[in-house]
Amino acid sequence: MFQVSYSPALTLVPTYECFNYCTYCNFRVNPGTDTWMSISQAASILESVKSHYVCEILILSGEVHPHSAKRRAWFQRIYDICQLALERGFLPHTNVGPLSYEEMAHLKGVNASMGLMLEQMTPELLKTVHRYAPSKVPQVRLEQLEWAGKLQIPFTTGILMGIGENKADWWETLEAIAQLHITYGNIQEVILQPYSPGNRQTWDAPGFDPHLLPEVVAAARQILPQDITIQIPPNLVADIGGLIACIEAGASDLGGLVPKDEVNPDYPHLELGKLTEVLNFAGWELVPRLPVYPQYDSWLPIPMQQLVKDWRTNIEM
Ligand SMILES: O=c1nc2n(C[C@H](O)[C@H](O)[C@H](O)CO)c3cc(O)ccc3cc-2c(=O)[nH]1
Ligand SMILES: C[C@H]1O[C@@H](n2cnc3c(N)ncnc32)[C@H](O)[C@@H]1O
Ligand code: SF4
């Protein structure tokens, strides 16, 4: 049977506070209105999932401005949470917005892979949804992918669709990812993320029409090099039929199946058993994977390589 993968994951949020105002966001709160996650809080969450089936710890955060006096403490908290997760035997994947080259280099030491969505390359969105979101300047984000390449960090990126871009913009952004990967070889997966409204975004637009997704998947499969996996979030598609259509069009990963989707809390995941069953029925086997793809194992810091090796024998039974 053909296989579709997912990552057994848990999300930790160091802080929801963010200096950007992406108008489609349901995650952010205003700077200064949130208490950051403490290390002991993180420790007790990790303790509570110990017996469960979790490998990846996704560290997803709101952002502190690069020139803010609080930036150093923010970064240190993220680093400490990664280190803690690693010590407890989990594999961290950090996605906390653009980093300085030095910050990224430090985080490489405590992450199995890292991520940042390219969103869309068109500068037009800086006049609309990203008007007050300096972190979303396309060149800044593309440079992040490049730095990750130079630092040999296995990387997850993707496009967010339905935020005011057009079709040509999708292909341009996917081409940019393809080019980057041809140069640096560090893009392990690309997420095709449909914008999905919740209760808190200020942008008044309908969600991305999920019926268009299979077509985007098929085109992305043509544009992206074969060794890049295409990921579809199963909770943001219309229904099971839509999900199967995406898989048949070339998506082969469902991303992190988490207890709570922190970015889209209004869209719960199907229970793992149920998802396994419906995929089986359509002829697909759902298999767990690590946050780092096997071809990148040799890029990881030496101490992490043994842990990854252990996870591979445990998880890929
Ligand atoms: O549960 C989620 N996981 C998200 N993930 C995690 C993803 O599903 C995978 O678990 C990781 O990429 C590891 O392979 C992201 C990772 C990124 O690097 C960039 C964006 C996302 C977005 C989400 C998300 O909205 N919800
Ligand atoms: C972590 C990633 O989540 C995505 N993101 C942010 N808000 C939404 C939303 N309402 N719907 C779907 N994806 C969203 C962005 O692409 C961001 O980079
Ligand atoms: S999408 Fe990320 S950068 Fe934009 S407001 Fe939300 S948390 Fe901040």
TrEMBL record:
Pfam families: Radical_SAM
Alphabetized PROSITE patterns for the sequence: RADICAL_SAM
InterPro entries for the chain: Aldolase_TIM, CofG_family, Elp3/MiaA/NifB-like_rSAM, F420, rSAM, rSAM_sf
Pathways involved: Cofactor biosynthesis; coenzyme F0 biosynthesis
Single GO MF annotation: 7,8-didemethyl-8-hydroxy-5-deazariboflavin synthase activity
Keywords: 4Fe-4S, Iron, Iron-sulfur, Lyase, Metal-binding, S-adenosyl-L-methionine
Catalytic reaction(s) noted: 5-amino-5-(4-hydroxybenzyl)-6-(D-ribitylimino)-5,6-dihydrouracil + S-adenosyl-L-methionine = 7,8-didemethyl-8-hydroxy-5-deazariboflavin + 5'-deoxyadenosine + L-methionine + NH4(+) + H(+)
Domain of life of the native organism: Bacteria
Cofactors that this protein relies on: [4Fe-4S] cluster
Residues of the Radical SAM core domain: 4-235
EC number(s) stated in the UniProt entry for this protein: 4.3.1.32
Subunit (UniProt): The FO synthase complex consists of two subunits, CofG and CofH.
Family the UniProt entry places it in: Belongs to the radical SAM superfamily. CofG family.
Protein name as annotated: 7,8-didemethyl-8-hydroxy-5-deazariboflavin synthase
Organism from which the protein derives: Merismopedia glauca CCAP 1448/3
Gene field: cofG
